[in-house]
Design brief:
This protein is mostly helical and 337 residues long. Helices cover 55% and strands 7% of the residues. The structure holds adenosine-5'-triphosphate (ATP) and L-tryptophanamide (LTN). The site of adenosine-5'-triphosphate (ATP) has 20 residues, from helix 2.
Length: 337
Amino acid sequence: MSENTIEQKKKTIFSGVQPSGKLTLGNYLGAIRNFGPLQEEYNCIYCVVDMHAITVRQDPATLRRQTLEVLAQYIACGLDPDKSTLFIQSHVPAHAELAWVLSCYTMFGELSRMTQFKDKSSKHADNVNAGLFTYPVLMASDILLYQTDMVPVGVDQKQHVELARNIAQRFNGVYSDTFVMPEPYIPQTGAKIMSLQEPSRKMSKSDENQNSFILLMDKPDDIMRKFRRAVTDSDTRVARGEGKDGVNNLISIYALATGKTPEQVEAEFEGKGYGDFKPAVGEAVVELLRPIREKTEALLQDKGYLESVYKEGAAKANYLARKTLDKVYRKVGFVKR
Ligand code: ATP
Ligand code: LTN
């Protein structure tokens, strides 16, 4: 390949979302919102990572339903199956196969330092399984199989993408260039949407307090109620500041939902209190999510279409993934089949 052709080759984007629950406003603003606009310029591959989801106990019927729901929400959030490759992780065996090889190039100490592992193992103390520990190796395999240049994620996943880089670098160092070095792609605003009830913690779909998160499928009444109850502070000004985690978070959400800057939001609510601001945030989010909810509901009625999308996606992903896996198997010294 001439240098010119290399330059012209579209860069590759890869990201994944776990079907471990219903998607939240945090998943949307931190990650999925950014997926659609990238598909015009890049070669985009988006995966529903069901194999990651079973690191925490899942009910089988619910997992199956939620896997299709995440796929439908990808499309409802603007992903076009004709432009991007959309597939389900367990349909492409190379993910598990590469994960084994990469686990032999990942250190116990590195995995022990992962904050998600520490958080999840304290939250699920009765089920600290080996998969929860090696989770980032499977994630590295997702990314490296497609020679990914950029990984759009929320800031909580930065550490995992950095580990994927370290594994790639180690492997490349031993066997010569095999993997492209991926970069995390983290939005300036929205990278970490906080809980509406405990705004010092990230909004998480697995939170026990239902009022702490907004789901993409929540009905308008529920969204309005959750924002009215959102925890703020004893100050009354709609302005960002230290110790105002709740209000800072609501300002970011309102800004993202309306396309305004945080400064414009502060100006808009100058002289007004939280009693005006909280319902305004609720209304903006209702309007932001309405088309996504309606489109998801319609897509979930058409299982035949969803099946055609994930089958075609798996075929394309499988072809690309095999190419990388064959190269890796050859480099480590496995006999050709
Ligand atoms: P859980 O909440 O169950 O721990 P999760 O929502 O963090 O799961 P995923 O569904 O795999 O895990 O996350 C998908 C994407 O959403 C990731 O890129 C992640 O960084 C992003 N994300 C998750 N929560 C937030 C949040 N509160 N703010 C911004 N981005 C988020
Ligand atoms: N670990 C991520 C989900 C995930 C992912 C990936 C993201 C799995 N594989 C590959 C980007 C690229 C999470 O928990 N949010």
